[in-house]
């Protein structure tokens, strides 16, 4: 557990020792402590759990564990955070254009929102179009008839997301991230209902904190396996980024065999990690993806520390970005689906034709929707260009997000992200504990990522729930059974995304396009475009910044195109 957390309770009649704070299941049967969401001025006193002894009391009211949040880690002094902050500052410091460019952007996920935000910061006018009636793209969410939210995915914000963390800071949203203790928690399939932890000590710098976390865990890997894995990783640690990029041609499984890493290391750790990173298994995932994650987690002290958003993403993250864009003169339009990219005689973009019949014209155009949609709308005149031909290798991976509301509060869980190590499930969390807006003291809501989903995406919701419950019975053997003879399902939602983030299989890296296309005035944004964070929220935000940067750099050329277009229109 971290050195301190914040606690607050309406009926706090006793203080218990650190052992009771670290795990809700540990402690006396007749008394636990009520913990509330910390990290804000209104959350009450700060405590250091290891610095006090529980006072002797003969009478006290029963209390329950609710949740524990941790202070925001110190991220500002990391190289990547500083670099991201500098890139953000270049937009605000850029010379104000005499005539702001009008940039039409298709897609209001994080990539499109990021592009529009930083273009607006640079003094231009983004016109952001979203096909659906909800913001967020891959982080979209919906409210059901009971007022409960269900999301496209289970989203975790890492300390190693410098551009995302800067974005929160720029918008004044740092208090909307609920930081959890610096741990990674894995279910133990061989011991149903039990978990194994990797705890990163606060007092150690990186990479020692990560090394310590691995060495201290003796439940998942033996010492000989740890040593062989460490030896296998040496080339990556010594070779740096050049080595990491060179591993794109190998799958995780192939790389492990090549480096002499025991197969059990893959089974125990990297199946779960592969599914969490890209929703596929190690025999498909490019090793470059794993090495990039390990690189960030080991090189940055708080890189692997996780935070949950304190509520639904459209309102708690996307709307503040929209408000910022609109405050600077930009526009955001929902239910505005692109039907066709219409071209001029010279092959450049003439306009975006919407399905509602509207025609959107601008000085520049950005396609920030998923790569699979781009390929569907790609004009025939462009299909022979190598830049676009290489996109054929990039294909979205299917994923399913499952939400189940139960009739009771489940006990065998943590206030954290959990790696299920199930053959059907990836990660999960009890959102009634981890998230302020979804908090419920009496009933649990599990949000689970069902992956790999290739064979399940066309199956019925009922089939998916039945399979999920069978897996949950192994994770909660005392509380859940497949036939619901124990905890009962109150309701559920299943969200299917047939094409989510691009499938990071070997040899994809050369196919990822730069944000500036060979078509003058046409740009791309999205986590599949060229940036160092691959398919992630961080990758999407960074891609938007790089796209905005390219447009700002091309400002004079684009302004000339706009003047030419206006002159031609006046002649007509």
Automatic annotation (TrEMBL):
State the UniProt keywords alphabetically: Carotenoid biosynthesis, Chloroplast, Chromoplast, Membrane, Oxidoreductase, Plastid
- Is Transcription there in the keyword field? no
Q: Which GO terms describe its biological process?
A: carotenoid biosynthetic process
Q: A Gene Ontology CC term for this entry?
A: chloroplast thylakoid
Question: What stretches pass through the bilayer?
Answer: none
Q: Name one Pfam family in it.
A: Amino_oxidase
Which GO terms label this protein's molecular function in UniProt? phytoene dehydrogenase activity
Gene3D superfamilies the record matches:
FAD/NAD(P)-binding domain (3.50.50.60)
Q: Where in the cell is it found?
A: Plastid, Chloroplast; Plastid, Chromoplast; Membrane
Domain Amine oxidase stretches: 110-551
Assembly and binders: Homotetramer.
Quote the NCBIfam families the UniProt record gives.
phytoene_desat
Q: What is the protein's given name?
A: Phytoene dehydrogenase
